[in-house]
């Protein structure tokens, strides 16, 4: 049985993933496009290359010390996709953006587990606002011009930490439930220093979820080049809004004190990072 919403997966999708007849419900998050059908979560996939690669990785990735991940669900014809949809094991739990330190710990454990993976070829071909902003912030493309972003760009300096696959949107994509390790879900992959995932979660927490500005340094305890990663993470979030045409006066006001805080602890050009 399907709720009366045109965005819901159709009966053919439910049949393909073996959950025909299930009552489906829209889940919180996932841009309003994610649905639960019994023990399966259905969401629009991100294209064949990325979807099949991610499913293949997570199908065989052991749960680590400090995290777990949902397993991808194959269709009845042994595919990772049907039409525009992919499916994943449903795991109980809720996101909690106020538990940013716990999110970062789970993300760190996840990044440790995937550190040996090679860079997939599809990353450089992705063409959405997030991917374009990410590449531009790291020197592979032109950044949009804006006074807020320009201030951060002036503080850019080389990052020496090695790149690896990271989760670029951790804060709302770690689920907590008593008795189980946190579940890392909805992985958007980027090829950047591992600490960038933590830095993005940190700036998201202070910009959107009321985490105190003076807590930024503690969130990066032990993360190499934390000051510069905060600069890059905040630039990435602002650049994405600019690329998407969604940067407005409210965003300027929201981000201004965070920019001040991040730049206040970022080293000046020619100095060493003290973090």
What value does the Rg take, in angstroms?
19 Å
Note the gap between the termini: 55 Å
Strand content: 5-15%
Largest sheet: 4 strands, antiparallel
Can you list the strand order of the major beta sheet?
1-2-3-4
Element-level helix/strand string: HEEEHEEHHHEEEEHHHH
Task: Tell me, rounded to a whole number, the average pLDDT.
Answer: 93
Helix content: 25-40%
Low-confidence stretches: 1-6, 268-275
Structural class: alpha+beta
Shape: globular
In DSSP terms (H or I, runs of 4 or more residues), the helix count works out at 9
Written overview of the protein:
The chain has 275 residues and is α+β, with helices and mostly antiparallel strands. The protein contains nine helices and nine strands. The model is unreliable at 1-6 and 268-275 (pLDDT under 50).
Layout: helices, strands, pairs:
Layout: H1 11-16, E1 24-26, E2 35-37, E3 40-44, H2 48-60, E4 85-89, E5 94-95, H3 100-113, H4 129-137, H5 147-153, E6 163-167, E7 174-176, E8 183-184, E9 189-193, H6 195-208, H7 216-219, H8 226-243, H9 249-265
Task: List its salient traits.
about 280 residues, alpha+beta, 4-stranded antiparallel beta sheet, 3-stranded antiparallel beta sheet, 9 strands, disordered C terminus
């Amino acid at each position: 049985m399907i709720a009366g919403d045109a965005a819901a997966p159709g009966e053919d999708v439910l049949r393909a993933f073996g959950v025909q007849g299930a009552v489906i419900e829209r889940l919180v998050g996932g841009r309003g496009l994610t649905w639960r059908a019994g023990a399966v979560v259905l969401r629009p996939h991100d294209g064949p290359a990325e979807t099949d690669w991610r499913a293949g990785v997570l199908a065989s990735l052991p749960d680590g010390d400090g995290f777990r991940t949902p397993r991808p669900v194959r269709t009845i014809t042994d595919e990772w996709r049907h039409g525009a949809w992919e499916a994943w094991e449903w795991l109980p739990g809720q996101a909690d953006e106020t538990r940013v330190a716990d999110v970062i710990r789970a993300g760190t454990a996840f990044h440790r587990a995937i550190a040996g993976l090679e860079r997939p070829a599809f990353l450089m071909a992705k063409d959405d606002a997030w991917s374009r902003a990410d590449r531009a912030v790291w020197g592979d493309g032109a950044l949009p011009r804006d006074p807020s972003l320009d201030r951060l760009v002036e503080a850019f300096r080389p990052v020496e930490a090695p790149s690896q696959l990271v989760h670029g949107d951790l804060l709302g994509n770690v689920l907590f439930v008593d008795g189980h390790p946190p579940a890392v879900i909805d992985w958007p992959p980027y090829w950047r220093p591992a600490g960038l995932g933590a830095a993005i979660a940190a700036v998201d927490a202070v910009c959107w979820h009321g985490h105190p500005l003076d807590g930024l340094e503690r969130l990066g305890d032990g993360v190499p080049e934390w000051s510069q990663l905060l600069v890059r993470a905040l630039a990435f979030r602002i650049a994405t809004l600019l690329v998407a045409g969604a940067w407005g006066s409210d965003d300027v006001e929201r981000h201004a004190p965070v920019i001040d805080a991040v730049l206040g602890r970022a080293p000046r050009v020619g100095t060493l990072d003290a973090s």
